[in-house]
Design a protein that fits this description.
Layout (H helix, E strand, L loop, with lengths): L1 E3 L3 H11 L9 E3 L2 H11 L3 E5 L1 E2 L2 E2 H11 L4 E6 L5 H8 L4 E4 L4 H12 L7 H15 L3 H4 L5 H11 L4 H8 L3 H15 L4 H10 L7
Helix pairs in contact: 2-3, 3-4, 8-10, 8-11, 9-10
Pfam families: GerE (PF00196), Response_reg (PF00072)
InterPro entries: CheY-like_superfamily (IPR011006), NreC/VraR/RcsB-like_REC (IPR058245), Sig_transdc_resp-reg_C-effctor (IPR016032), Sig_transdc_resp-reg_receiver (IPR001789), Tscrpt_reg_LuxR_C (IPR000792), WalR-like (IPR039420)
Keywords: DNA-binding, Phosphoprotein, Transcription, Transcription regulation
Length: 212
């Protein structure tokens, strides 16, 4: 297992919790997005325990990269709250479950083993929200209407079409305001849209922007 977190005390606690477990071995540690992706690619661990708050970016983006470049690796995200929008964003990016910081040792071991064996760890609330989102995706032709956009750009466009402002988009996708502005600028350029309003109109015609 690869541990990804920039808080030494938390890592110490995780290592202590895993010590003595014959079926779980920590093969490496990373403290930021760049090293997490690099180590996941070189070590190919069965499980990555991924913090969502990292010094050089979001654990959501790191999760997406790890899943894309190391398909045999499963990501278990770490969060302070199961209600965090970033948890759902991470699941959409390919994470297989989450563990709330402060949870017990038995809960951590159970989560790691479940994800390692191919299962998923969701709370009922997160499962409901994911189910609603994926149901919406299945009925939205807009998810395929703009092939020139990346998945992240489609996510931004979808939220713009729902009426989200940049700050709310940033919170929902666990991005900075500046990153959202950059993504939106690229979306407008790729779509050839004059402004945000035109992009919203085109996205809604394509079926994007449906509320959960």
């Amino acid at each position: 297992m690869l541990l990804v977190d920039d808080h030494p005390l938390f890592l110490d606690g995780v290592r202590a919790a895993l010590a003595g477990e014959d079926d779980i071995e920590v093969v490496g540690e990373a403290h930021d997005v760049a090293s997490a992706v690099a180590l996941a690619g070189s070590l190919r661990p069965d499980v990555v325990l991924m913090d969502l708050n990292l010094p050089d970016g979001s654990g959501v983006d790191a999760t997406r990269e790890v899943v894309a470049t190391s398909p045999g690796t499963r990501v278990l995200v770490i969060t302070m709250s199961a209600d965090d929008e970033a948890v759902v964003a991470a699941m959409r990016s390919g994470a297989r479950g989450f563990f709330v910081k402060g949870g017990g040792r038995d809960d951590l071991l159970s989560a790691v083993r479940t994800v390692a064996s191919g299962g998923a760890v969701f709370s009922p609330a997160v499962a409901d929200r994911l189910g609603s989102w994926f149901s919406g995706v299945a009925g939205q032709s807009g998810r395929e209407a703009f092939p020139q956009l990346t998945e992240r750009e489609r996510e931004v466009l979808d939220l713009v079409a729902r009426g989200y402002d940049n700050r709310r988009i940033a919170k929902a996708l666990f991005l900075s305001d500046k990153t959202v502005r950059n993504h939106l600028s690229i979306v407008l350029t790729k779509l050839g849209a004059r402004d945000r309003a035109e992009a919203v109109e085109r996205a809604r015609r394509a079926g994007m922007g449906a509320m959960e």
